[in-house]
Amino acid sequence: MAKQGNGTTRLPLWEDETPAEFRLRRREQGVPGAGPPRRGRPGMPLEFKDPYLDPDEDGGAGPPWGGFARPGRRWWRPASRAGRIFLVLGALIVLGGLTMAGLRLKTYLERDALFRITGTNDIQATGLSEVSRAQVLAVFGSDIGRNVFFVPLEERRKELEAIPWVERATVMRLLPNQIRVAVVERQPVAFVRRGEQIGLVDANGVLLSMSPEAMARHHYSFPVLTGIDPGDPPASRKARLAVYLRLMAALDSTGQHFSEQISEIDLTDPEDARVLMPEQGSDIVADFGDSRFLERFLRYKQYIGQWRQQYPQLAAVDLRFNRQVVLQMASGKETSEADAGQAKPQAEAIKGGDAQRKSSVHGRSKSRRRAGEAR
Fold first, then answer.
1. How would CATH label the architecture of 115-185?
2. Among 14, 128, 291, 293, which residue's beta carbon has the most beta carbons within 10 A?
3. Can you name the CATH fold of 188-373?
4. Is the bond preceding residue 176 a cis peptide, omega within 30 degrees?
């Protein structure tokens, strides 16, 4: 405080601007015995209460805008009722405009002639070799003249994959009015005998047809498989082909391509691959089972000369046992050989239904089937 010449007391300049509430609070805090002294300099207010920071006042939620200010209302919400009405009307107008624009665009895409498939030239197909373009166009025949957006792509894909030579297909739209088809064809892995006809089969057991001229053009060189019946379930045919593929992979695993010495394979029993081995004078049927193919093949090649020399009527060899082989004669008799290399037959020859079954494969093809011979 400062004294002036007329005897009046005048407050400092900063106290003139201090609200009465804070001046009263300062005076109360300066009374002796009111409690421990609070921090601050003399004449300064010692405590300020902010209702936004005090949880006991105005709900105590704190400032929602980072502590700087508490807005009275959201920025987009008008203060008056008329303003809120205009806001709702504006939103409805914008929503209605967007809806109308979407409907007009939909009508344009569905009805404009620009998006109509005009002919077969608007249907493109790639990856065709054994599948003809006519087969592909037959699937899309009903779509000629139709709007490209109305073509059921998933349904057309399934129809394409129903063609035997098609393994998988992709169908897509090309704006404004074209359909593109990408086909992956099946790859044959063996010939298959069906009665008197020779066809092809892929790794999944799907039977494929091909003319003899086309087979000769491709120069296929596969063994002939028997026991693959078109009436069998697809899973059954696939299981038989899995045995065949493991057999071929095992025989070629050393890089010597032993599989080229195989003429025919009977897969009637999926647990026993019965291989027709061409030999001089007659073919020998060898039972390789469903495992250890390379080991059993090498054992066969090691001792077949001795077996044929001792048993001129040898027709089949069962290699599925660990320490012995069973030799089948053309007459239907069986002889067991211990330790695979010693020509010491056991005393008794076994006859019966199993012998009849094993001798039934004698007389099959004597050479490896090639495409030119499949007529």
1. Roll (3.10)
2. 293
3. Rossmann fold (3.40.50)
4. yes
Q: How far apart are CA 368 and CA 375, in angstroms?
A: 14
Q: 0.90 exceeded by the pTM?
A: no
Task: Specify the pairing of strand 2-3 against strand 9-10.
Answer: antiparallel
- What pLDDT, in 10s, does the model give residues 64-118? 545 444 455 677 778 888 888 888 998 999 999 899 888 888 777 777 888 999 9
Look-up of token digits 């004078």: 281
Distance CA 54, CA 40 (A): 21
CB 374 within 8 A of CB 365: no
CA distance 316 to 282: 11
Residues 209/177, Cβ–Cβ less than 8 Å: no
User: Tokens at residue 147, please?
Assistant: 């709007």
In the chain, what are the domain boundaries?
A: 13-32+45-63, 115-185, 188-373
